[in-house]
Write a structure and sequence with these properties.
Largest sheet: 6 strands, antiparallel
Helix content: 10-25%
Strand order of the largest sheet: 12-17-18-19-24-22
Number of strands: 27
Strand content: 35-45%
Number of domains: 2
């Protein structure tokens, strides 16, 4: 007997309760295909239009008021919100150079142009030596896009032009900053600063989406490979956690020695610079010492940094500090980096995972320890202040410095690895970078600090005697 369930019968769809419309499978097929084709066509058109770009493009700027963004950690000027209402024109000059024109929408606001900016220096470019290994290339691109890169220009820079307005900006503009945010590709912002009481304050902030067609073209130009090979990683966070990192392809070890290192868990937490400004973005209470970050007694979360580039307390970001929960030892190495002639140094910090016992390692490489700034501890933010990654620039630097120091040529790299040399997602762990300097009084004493997620707080302070 035939299975009744397999018998082909017309499908009946009741309409108005009494009048059935009978649809055969053939009719359903011929009805569905045009719909699918239409949906795919609309999706394809949307995808293609995302990468359309012209030599001049007028973009919307998103501007948030104090009431809309109460968690803003920036030092705000008393003139904040008084020169808002702008739009942005991007003008392509050649394959990699662009103008950014802040167009005013009212008479009192000035027109400000950031001229002839080389976007090859603000677009992810993997160092040539990482292209020998797929894993290194992926991590280089991923960390480059997912770390902040902010460049600044003094008001009298040849790259800055200011006209019109009521005169305030022409007289009081102190600095202009352009930032590629630590988010998906395309999330950028412009910031304008003035000086008040000899301190720098922000009076304007606008977020925009950099045209993806231009981004794609610059990426392909400087990397000499198809954007589509890495586009998903750049535009959507694709976690390369577990990727084996072959550090031997990045440098050759000349010699190594274990050095005396102190990490006093009972030392009180301190803050300056952006850590002092970002107190409100660390969602935790009763954190007083470094040890408080590595116990189960405190619930620690951070305000998530999300598109287009602001902090949201309603979307908390967690941590995995147990993976570096117990400090074990420090190792100092002399190394010969790939791509440069000079021998440099490397610091490795070994930690034990307090949940599994596994040993994980933070490797900070390609540093000239002798050239580090000599500073008091309270000025740690003026020393080496860098993200984790491979072939990356500092979080903040002047455009002039960026032109002299191309990120893809840098011997610096910093990676967090497990016992199998597999890359640990430090963003998920809530570790974004390091700070480092020599002691002001004792140049043989090295200070090293760990920066939390989004650099909201320091989470550790190590001191190491280089003589020992």
């Amino acid at each position: 007997m035939a299975n009744p369930a397999s018998t082909k019968r017309p499908l009946t769809i009741p309409i108005l309760g009494k009048l059935p419309v009978k649809l055969t499978n053939k009719k359903i097929l011929f009805t569905t295909i045009p719909i699918l084709v239409a949906v795919l066509g609309i999706g394809g058109f949307g995808f293609a239009s995302r990468y359309k770009a012209s030599n001049e493009m007028l973009l919307n700027l998103k501007e948030l008021s104090n009431s809309e963004y109460p968690a803003n950690p920036a030092p705000l000027s008393k003139n904040f919100e008084r020169y808002s209402g702008r739009e942005l024109k991007i003008i392509k000059k050649d394959d990699t150079h662009f103008d950014f024109v802040l167009e005013p929408k009212n008479e009192k606001t000035a027109k400000i142009v950031i001229k002839n900016i080389d976007l090859s220096l603000l677009t992810p470019k993997a160092p040539e030596w990482t292209k020998k290994d797929k894993g290194l290339e992926v991590i280089a691109f991923t960390d480059r896009e997912w770390n902040r890169q902010q460049i600044s220009f003094p008001a009298d820079s040849e790259h800055i032009e200011i006209t019109g307005g009521d005169g305030f900006e022409q007289k009081n503009l102190f600095e202009v900053a352009l930032a590629n945010n630590c988010l998906n590709a395309g999330y950028w912002e412009i910031l304008l600063f003035t000086k008040e009481d000899n301190n720098k304050f922000m009076y304007y902030q606008g977020w925009f989406t950099f045209p993806m067609g231009h981004y794609k073209s610059v990426f392909e130009k400087i990397n000499n490979l198809s954007y589509w090979k890495h586009w998903w990683k750049l535009e959507h966070w694709q976690d390369p956690d577990g990727t084996v990192v072959n550090t031997k392809l990045l440098r050759e070890v000349i010699d190594e020695q274990q050095i005396a290192a102190q990490f006093p868990l009972d030392e009180r937490i301190f803050a300056t610079g952006e850590q002092a400004r970002k107190i409100r973005t660390t969602l935790a209470t009763n954190l007083t010492t470094w040890g408080d970050f590595y116990t189960d007694k405190n619930k620690i979360e951070f305000a998530t940094f999300r598109p287009p580039g602001f902090y949201d307390h309603n979307v908390p970001w967690g941590h995995q500090y147990w993976r570096i929960g117990k400090f074990d030892k420090a190792t100092l190495r002399n190394i010969k980096p790939v791509g440069v002639q000079q021998n440099l140094q490397e610091i490795e910090l070994a930690f034990n995972d307090t949940k599994t016992g596994e040993q994980n390692r933070l490797v900070i490489s390609g540093i000239n320890l002798k050239e580090l700034s000599k500073l008091p501890v309270e000025e740690y933010n003026k020393g080496l202040y860098m993200p984790l990654g491979i072939g990356i620039p500092p979080f903040y630097q002047s455009y002039e410095d960026l032109e002299k120091n191309h990120p893809h040529e840098s011997p610096y790299f910093a990676v967090l690895l497990d016992s199998k040399d597999q890359w640990i997602d430090h963003h998920k762990l809530a570790l974004d970078g390091i700070a480092m300097h020599l002691d002001k009084e004792n140049p043989n004493l090295l200070h090293l600090y760990l920066l939390s997620y989004e650099r909201n707080t320091l989470i550790a302070h190590f001191s190491m005697n280089l003589n020992e």
